[in-house]
């Protein structure tokens, strides 16, 4: 049976790769139907081993349905959902299904009788860990400008040094980035003064306008005022295009901007894939929410 | 027999008999009148009083004349240029001049002594100061940056001496956390910070101390009185009591001082 599952997935992976070249937007139901048709043409009637034959692949709404003919008295009842999920993750298809909100159903028939059905919701296929690891301190870092800040690093993400003067650290994982950037402010602001400043809507708009200026066709998706470990802050999310070596790429970026004494601290996450960025937003929120300014507790 | 009147220029005295007049405090120039005369006339010019006139000694016609007459006659003053008040030669004047002179000399001596001892004090502090790794320049840069943000643009001297010094080991300096000597000189910033103070102060207190001394040095701002009303302000002299203050307290107190300075500059 293990061989059967592996064989099946090798075909499935091939089909998905051929039909789905890096989706930048969540696929529509029509797109899913097209994919199902392509997969169906490839797998229909294929012997996947152990006497199991693929009947075909169909789409219903946002669900892909894979149907198989299994021999009588096969070990089909031994197929476990968790094994299927593990294999989908190993093959890399789980990420595509998760990001595009595609559910997967497996049907096993003995003759005309349905002997087993396994349904996997797209949320169960998330490959993104939302767990945070240990605190990282930037105290005494040469680029920290005397800011003493601690923040948790997501498990499985690399911690790298910033390659620009104001970027202190960055956490990276599969092209996704979360960075800590510290700039000098024009003067000191107490927490009360910064709060007052952030009440000024024209200041907020101007600030966001300036920050997003490196993006072409930038659109502000949201912006709001909050506090992070008692320090006044604002958050905003923008999308737009950037050009690198003549190639224009679509980027989505979320920033938390903290007014700390005479510094402006940017906690910034960005990604190229809207769906992936959205999937990681809860993680970015957790990282940001873990920030601590220890000096205030001395 | 005529009855005589005489005047001191303001009041009229009489009538007196000739004999009575003789005993009045009169001089040859005292003006006399009696019935029948058209106007007040000097005694010396009245024929019938010639004998009296010759018995009165003439005026000395100097500023001591009044002292020769037992009482100064007002008519003398009326008929003479009024003497300029001169204390130089008077006894009281001498006393006053003497006192003023002594006071002036005392102040001068005290001032010289004070300058001398201040100079010695400064030299002693400077001698006990030393180079350290502390980045005092950062505080200076931030101070000027904040002043400029508030619209205050003082001179930026090229010469800056900001050093640690073991003030608590010097006589008369054991209570000093920091001292500025550049207050009256716009061409230099000269500040000494007590080493043990610096080591014991936390971050907000260090900012309080440095901005306090820089305000003395660059803005020539004096210490406030150590009253409860001034507690929390940047120029409060007892910053060592600011242990519970945080950076927000420092920031707001420095902004309050800068706003105050700007307001006073604008009103001038």
Kindly describe this structure.
The complex is a heterodimer of chains A (298) and B (268). Chain A has helices at 2-19, 29-43, 81-91, 93-99, 191-198, 201-211, 274-289; strands spanning 47-49, 52-60, 63-69, 103-110, 113-120, 132-137, 150-154, 158-161, 167-173, 176-184, 216-228, 231-244, 247-260, 263-271. Chain A is elongated, with a radius of gyration of 24 Å. Mean pLDDT of chain A is 88; it is low at 13-24. Chain A has 298 residues and is an alpha+beta fold. In chain A, the strands form three sheets. A seven-stranded antiparallel sheet of chain A has the order 8-9-10-14-13-12-11. In chain A, strands 1-2-3-4-5 form a five-stranded mixed sheet. Helix content of chain A is 29%, strand content 39%. Chain B is of the alpha+beta class and 268 residues long. In chain B, a hairpin with a 4-residue loop joins strand 1 and strand 2. Chain B has helices spanning 18-22, 50-55, 65-68, 74-79, 91-128, 136-149, 195-200, 203-219, 247-267, and strands spanning 4-7, 12-16, 31-34, 41-42, 129-130, 159-165, 178-180, 188-194. In chain B, helix 6 packs across helix 8 (203-219) and helix 8 (203-219) runs parallel beside helix 9 (247-267). Classes of the chains: A alpha+beta (298), B alpha+beta (268).
Which SSEs are present, and which pair or pack?
The complex is a heterodimer of chains A (298) and B (268).
Chain A: H1 2-19, H2 29-43, E1 47-49, E2 52-60, E3 63-69, H3 81-91, H4 93-99, E4 103-110, E5 113-120, E6 132-137, E7 150-154, E8 158-161, E9 167-173, E10 176-184, H5 191-198, H6 201-211, E11 216-228, E12 231-244, E13 247-260, E14 263-271, H7 274-289
Parallel strand pairs in A: 3-4
Antiparallel strand pairs in A: 1-2, 2-3, 4-5, 6-7, 8-9, 9-10, 10-14, 11-12, 12-13, 13-14
Helix pairs in contact in A: 1-2, 1-3
Chain B: E1 4-7, E2 12-16, H1 18-22, E3 31-34, E4 41-42, H2 50-55, H3 65-68, H4 74-79, H5 91-128, E5 129-130, H6 136-149, E6 159-165, E7 178-180, E8 188-194, H7 195-200, H8 203-219, H9 247-267
Parallel strand pairs in B: 6-8
Antiparallel strand pairs in B: 1-2, 1-3, 3-4, 5-6, 7-8
Helix pairs in contact in B: 6-8, 8-9
